[in-house]
Amino acid sequence: MRPVSATATASAMALVVARGAATRRCFTSSLVSRHASQQPPSSSSLPAKLPPQPPNARQFKPHLNYRYIRDNVSALQENCVNRNALDVDVAKVAALYDSFVAADYELGELRRWRNAVAVEMASLVGQAKKDMGAKGADTDVSIGSRRKVLAEQGRNLKASIAKHESLVADLQSRLYEEARHIPNDTHPQSPIGDESNATVLSTTGTPRGPTFPSGAPLRSHMDIMLAHDMVDFDRAGKVAGSSFYYLRNMGAMLEMALCRFAMDTCIAEGFTPVVAPDVIRHEVLEACGFNPRSEDPQTYYIAPHDPAAAETTGTQRDPLQLCLTATAEFPLAAAHANETLPRASLPLKSVASSHAFRAEGLAGAANRGLYRVHQFTKIEMFALTPRGGDTSAAVLADMVRIQRHMYAALGLCFRELDMPTHDLGAPAFRKIDIEAWMPGRGSWGEISSASDCTDFQSRRLNIRTFSSAPRPPVQARDADAAAKQPQQAMAAEFVHTVNGTACAVPRLIIAILETHQTEDGNVRVPEALRPYLWGLDTIRAGIGLADLVREQQLRAKNE
């Protein structure tokens, strides 16, 4: 191996120093200018700072498209405004990315310089040994002097590289922390604005009026459930507080029937049944696109065993801190994190049963009863699809078709809405909601939602597939010819994710009871649920569940 000349090493050193100085000047001045106008909040108003978690310290390996962000600052900022993400600064993300790239390049140059020094040092050591063997005397004085210079350079480079590695890691953490708040792109047909701008795509059925034929007013679901001993909020309040409840008797059986009906429907459509965890790590919540910048009012967090791990600012939490999931979408999405899936396995469709926990509650008559509660059972559809808007859009349309089929089978009046930008959240590219008419409330109420999230979640969870299938095995006699042929590309790409509610139990119970109530206090059972309720066609007032079941069994036996 030829030794690296001192001149070459010095030239490399000068190049790195010059580039490094320019980078540091640019980066430092940009930091000063950005922070000079920002007055820090009072230290007494903030809890102890928790340092940002670097992406490489997380369980999952996020791969955000920073180059795309840098090249589309104006369009992405406009999209943020349309989606009411007013605290997102896309230009800041682009500037951080440029600083990160420059610092990472400088670090690479320092490492190359270190390697050049190591190569020259090894060459000099080899030359010294060779000279000693040939002359039987000490090595040349010039070689020894040069080795001292290289040793000093090596020590300096080691310290400089350590500092630059720290700088690069810090920039990478700050870059991800800012970029993760940028919402997904938006479907061109999604209306812009708040919920009032939603587009009604279709309506099934006719809303029931507020009165019975006699003119008597319809009952609310709470009046019906209390009359039939289906629910108990008071005793649940003693156990867990407000907005928790016990479902009893036919209320409990309605939940089980709805869950089985939804699961059976989805299984018949090719979905794999899953019972998902109710507890997830905060990292999963974050990767799926739930990114509040202030204290999170909607999530129940579980205190960790290590009290130090619970330290938080308003925006930063330990990625491994546990919380109760708000939907099975999150554990289903994270199940394949850090995996590269065979393309032939896609779309990968699952339907999960889990509890959903929502800490935030709203008071008022509109939210009375089961409409807005802290815990409920939910059946969720989820799919991983190959990359491509047409593919994930087709799966979204299929989920909405399944939803329409189920709600029509339950005899509900409902409408399908293309949701506007303010209601998309961070991950959704397009979102379709279904609202049922709830006669006792006298208004529409959301019973399901379906979203195409494209690669927003898969980039944060690092879920990929191959863009093309591998070549088939080559027979032995064709091996030589095959070796001369160019190999087929096997580039990995991020999958798309799609989710949709199959059954949110409390809202469906409200819609069913209020829609199918009769003036004599009974409730007609939708035909689709009868196989799961002993064949009952009516929930009759004044008869206990056990007596109702025995009566139905005798009737079935006689028939």
TrEMBL record:
Keyword Lipid biosynthesis assigned to the entry: answer is no
* Alphabetical GO biological process terms: seryl-tRNA aminoacylation
- Does this entry carry the keyword Nucleotide-binding? yes
Q: Where is this region: Disordered?
A: 32-59, 182-216
Domain Aminoacyl-transfer RNA synthetases class-II family profile, first and last residues per copy: 254-526
Against InterPro entries, the record matches this protein to: aa-tRNA-synt_IIb, aa-tRNA-synth_II, aa-tRNA-synth_II/BPL/LPL, Ser-tRNA-ligase_type_1, Ser-tRNA-synth_1_N, SerRS_1_N_sf, tRNA-bd_arm
Q: What broad class of enzyme is this?
A: ligase
Composition bias type Low complexity, residue spans: 36-48
Q: Which PROSITE patterns match?
A: AA_TRNA_LIGASE_II (PS50862)
Q: Which UniProt keywords apply?
A: Aminoacyl-tRNA synthetase, ATP-binding, Ligase, Nucleotide-binding
Q: Where is the composition biased (Polar residues)?
A: 196-206
GO molecular function terms listed in the Swiss-Prot or TrEMBL record? ATP binding; serine-tRNA ligase activity
* EC number in record: 6.1.1.11
Write down what this protein is called.
serine--tRNA ligase
